[in-house]
Amino acid sequence: MTSATLQHPSFRLITPIWPVLLVLVVAASLWSGPFLTPANLAAVLQQGVITGIVALGMTIVLIGGEFDLSTGATVMMAAVMALLLGPSDGLSTLTAILLPILTGGVIGLINGLAVYRAGANSIVATIGMQFLVVGAVLALVRGQHVRADDIDPLFTALTTARLLGVPFAVYIFAGLVIGLAIVMSETVFGRHVYALGGDREAARRAGIGVTRTGVATYVISGMLAALAGVLIASLVGHVDPTAIRGYEFPALTAAVLGGTSLTGGVGRPADTAAAILVLAVITNVMTINNYQYPVQLLVQGVVLTAAVAFYSWQRSGSAS
To answer: In sequence order, what DSSP letters do the residues of 178-191 get, joined into one string?
Structure first.
């Protein structure tokens, strides 16, 4: 293994976000007594699951050098679709889980083809998809709340069931983090995504299927965003379509905070997960101490700005 390989982000065991998370947890434990209670720790873990799942998919697309700003609309679509399918028994529950996720994959496929086959700008293309999906969903439900009656307990168990006191949704998130970490660091596909984000033309000359690899990153992002929407439907049992949009920006925040480069080629799913926990800890501690929402936004903005400045300094230093 060459020294260049060892410097690749997928091979670095410790990145800056992990010491930040450790310091935050210690500080939160000292500053707020209730923080370390089992119930509160479970709440911290669960708090970031939905955004975290969306952020994982966005991280893969960003590593490939592109953006996916349609994820918030995909979350909304999947939550609405899951409830409209009426998960009232075993078969309908399975359908309400799988069909929205497959639809999210189709949305990702269209995004990927638009960007990698048609050459569209990823920001413009995915914002256009966002408008298309949101408009279609709101027209379908006529802007009304969506509710499912007689929901199968198996469907709600996706988010309400607990194992060792930890919500099952947290295990889903953890499994996705581990799975994607392995895919990105140990498989040919993962190495191709990093190469794609590092230098697309060089990747093409090296024989990498640029279109195939790039489209796959969007399919993954769309399916993960749809899974997040299904989990929202499972958790609340009813949704206001206009109230669950906008997940793309918190997800982008987590990805950037975790060190994923907006120019591609750098990032790790595990670091994005750590960033989600950082944001969850900050929000939790400020909620415990009765800080108002605007203050929470201010603190998160400061953290994100500091992270962007740090990573920019770090990369410019390593490049020089």
So the answer is: HHHHHHHHHSHHHH
